[in-house]
Specification:
Blueprint: H1 6-21, E1 32-33, E2 40-50, H2 52-59, E3 63-64, E4 67-71, H3 77-83, H4 89-97, E5 100-106, E6 117-119, E7 144-147, E8 157-160, E9 166-174
Parallel strand pairs: 5-9
Antiparallel strand pairs: 1-2, 2-9, 3-4, 4-9, 5-6, 5-7, 7-8
Amino acid sequence: MRYRTSKQQRRLVTLAAGLGSFAAVSGASAQVLNPNNGHYYQAITVPEGISWESARVLAETLTYSGMNGYLVTFTTEQEMNWFASYENRPFLGDAMNDHYWIGGYKATPGPDPAQGWAWVTGEPFTYTNWSANEPNNMGGHEDSLVFWTWDGTLGRWNDDPGEAPAMGFVVEYSSGNLVPSPGPVALMLLGGGIAMRRRR
């Protein structure tokens, strides 16, 4: 198991501070309020690519108006429909058109690609919005959730290898402390030199 060094941690915090302070010029959208749940959502673009684990760690260093950030979770159809709505496309549309990480991961390996998924917050993984013929665990190691518009519908999901570089990620901000301690199953991800989940 590999853990971040203090130098790596400082670099992530510095990058997070930069994204928060210079959103207009750093590839981060405005924070958009969902009036249905009081949460804010933000798409962050990383042109050079970012792994799922690096995105997860960075998302959890971000705050907005006193609310904690984490990779977005979609637990209801209402939430997903709001996110994909026409009025949000100027702010969040890029995330749905390209590969942007969201907060689902394969917590329990098994032969069924659709089983064993979890949200980073520990919320129940009951609602799903998979793209056509997904998830399929192609290559046997697709263990992370990403937006995928192969079938032409905005906001559909795909399973992808967590170490594969995505174009960015989506952060959700809420006032509750929704991000729990890591579970017993560690994901061996290699993005950005950061291989393990953060220990609380």
